[in-house]
Specification:
By secondary structure, the chain is of the alpha+beta class. It has 4 domains: 136 residues, N-utilizing Substance Protein B Homolog, Chain A (Orthogonal Bundle), CATH 1.10.940.10; 30 residues; 68 residues, 2-Layer Sandwich (Alpha-Beta Plaits), CATH 3.30.70.1170; 51 residues, no CATH class. The protein is 58% helix and 8% strand. Strands 2-3-1-4 form a 4-stranded antiparallel sheet, with helices on one face. Helix 1 packs parallel to helix 3, helix 1 crosses helix 5 and helix 5 packs antiparallel against helix 6.
Length: 299
């Protein structure tokens, strides 16, 4: 039977990821596509799954404080992470719901163990919160769930205070933005379609982007279900990616080479900035050259 509740869906996706069956976003999208959830329940499933991965390092550190070096079954480790994330990273879920509904997902033989660990942490809430704050201060890579080599590089480059602020920002859930594909749709047409599709959005305003070109998506059904998305009326694109062509101010006399992970998205905005750019050449590096790009980026 396919999972149908937010915690069940999150646990299912996390366990598949733990077992190496794919990337979390793909696993989650696949499960959510067939689940009939309300917008709040869908958001909860996404927050639980993505939040556990985002904070996996300190979650595993907390678990180790209780169980030591004993290796847990994947399903037990996932459920302990899921329960602890609700207890210490989310503030709108009561302890009894965080513990009780997580324990319900455990296999019968492991349910008592999961229940004991989570209830123990719930009783030690304030002490545990202090431990987590100390961990962020004394071992920032672990406390903020970042690779140690990256934290060390940032500290060497910018100092510890700026690095801590950067890691805090980096762990915030990403906002989702949509850019209108003006080659085939106008903003008014897209907005009218979104209203029919129950898409909640906000108007975005940035100095470098024309008005009503990029919107923030607040809540929406799965993108694959949206007729506006299937028809290509909009792209999921961060507004920061539209800044480069504005700063460079391309002209027909300048030849430009642009690379994008997905062909066609960024080059189209470049052409929108300068519709008479014969010198624009979209390019995606072939696999043999990809290592050169990575080496240059890491230099």
């Amino acid at each position: 039977m396919r999972p149908s509740k937010p915690r069940e869906i999150a646990c299912h996706a996390l366990l598949d990821r733990e077992n190496g069956r794919g990337f979390l976003e793909d696993l989650l999208d696949h499960t959510l596509a067939s689940a009939r959830l309300s917008a709040p329940d869908r958001a909860l499933a996404q927050e639980l799954a993505c939040g556990v991965v985002r904070w996996q390092a300190p979650l595993d550190w907390l678990i180790a404080q209780k169980v030591g070096d004993r290796r847990q079954l994947p399903v037990v480790q996932v459920l302990l992470r899921l329960g602890l994330y609700q207890l210490f990273w989310l503030d709108r879920i009561p302890d009894h719901a965080a513990v009780g509904e997580t324990v319900e997902l455990a296999p019968e033989r492991q349910a008592g163990f999961v229940n004991a660990i989570l209830r123990g942490f719930a009783r030690e809430r304030e002490v545990t919160r202090l431990l987590l704050e100390r961990l962020k201060r004394d071992e920032p890579a672990l406390g903020w769930s970042h690779p140690d080599w990256l934290a060390q590089r940032w500290i060497a480059r910018w100092g510890k205070p700026k690095t801590l602020r950067l890691m805090e920002f980096n762990n915030q859930p990403a906002r989702v933005f949509a850019r209108v594909n003006t080659l085939i749709a106008e903003p008014d047409k897209l907005i009218a379609q979104w209203r029919r599709e129950d898409v909640e959005y906000d108007f975005g305003r940035w100095d470098w982007i024309p008005e009503n070109l990029v919107f923030e998506l607040r809540s929406h059904p799965p993108l694959a279900r949206l007729e506006s998305f299937r028809r290509g009326w909009f792209y999921v694109q961060d507004p920061s990616t539209c800044l480069a062509p504005r700063l460079l101010a391309p002209s027909p006399a300048i030849g430009c080479l642009t690379s994008a992970r997905r062909p066609g998205v960024r080059p189209r905005f470049w052409r929108r900035c300068s519709r008479t750019m014969p010198g624009l050449s979209p390019w995606n590096p072939p696999p043999p050259a990809a290592h050169v790009w990575r080496r240059t980026a890491n230099a």
